[in-house]
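WARN no homologs supplied; continuing
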Amino acid sequence: MRVLISTGGGVLVRRPKREDFPYFNGSESSIDIEDLVPGCARPDCIPSIDNPKWLDSPEGYSSNEEVIALFYEDDVFAVSKFVLNVHEIVNFEHEDGTPLAITYCPLCQTEKGYLRLIEEEVVELGVSGLLWNSALVLYDRKSLSLFSQAISKCILGKYNGSHLIEFPVIDTTVEKLINEIGGSIRFLSKDTGSRRAKNYSSNPYGDYGNTDSVYFPLKHTDNALPKKERVFVLREMIIPQDSITSDPCPVKGSIFSAKIAGFPVFFRGNPVQFPGGSLRKFVADNSLEWLPADYCFYFTARAYHPKFDIFRPRC
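OK structure emitted
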């Protein structure tokens, strides 16, 4: 798809065009496809991990290493953010056969845990090579459907309009996860066999998260908050992470947040019912309603939700 053009003694590399990608064959779309821009040259330009090995201990991890941990049933699966920076997707099956995925977008900070099942069909997620609002667009390798990871929704193709079912994920460190969650935790082995393994101890994005730089076009933007401020998007609210100061924190009405290994997670119900700060126990008992909240940079929240209000809980 990427074309090399020789000019005299040099070689120019043509940037890929949207039309180079295999998704646009008349499939129904719920967005303006002009808003989709190439971020790299082809599907799977960033390779997902599709046959992960899980360890019972954090071998190869440092105690303060950041991980994204997914909670499913009574199990916890943790993946280093160093690994996700260069793979973005981990497709795997739970031992009960349930198809799951852990996904991460380094450009916008979104991190999602998914059930890879739509209309009783298993989807196999890959990096599409396209971006929408400078954010990851996933694709299903079987149907070539496109999914916006930021809003967990199919935006083009066979499953257009359908949402991926989410499971709780938290962004924390190895030490906090072990000390505060307890029990059995499975860590992704860094022995992936990938050529990208040499980058598993560094961040290829450097200081990107601490600057105002945004690499690709945004549909909507404003200056109400710094572009890279971390926020949660929940029920038409954009909630700055630094506004959640107490634990638990009453947010609005019956919605509250509780910090799990230091990371805010949102629920509906009575905070008194929260089972001792254990998300594992909550997931197993289902004693409260867990509310998916999109964790991201502010620029991402505003690009997708131009009419949502910034809300600061009084906690």
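The first helix runs from residue 81 to 87.
OK
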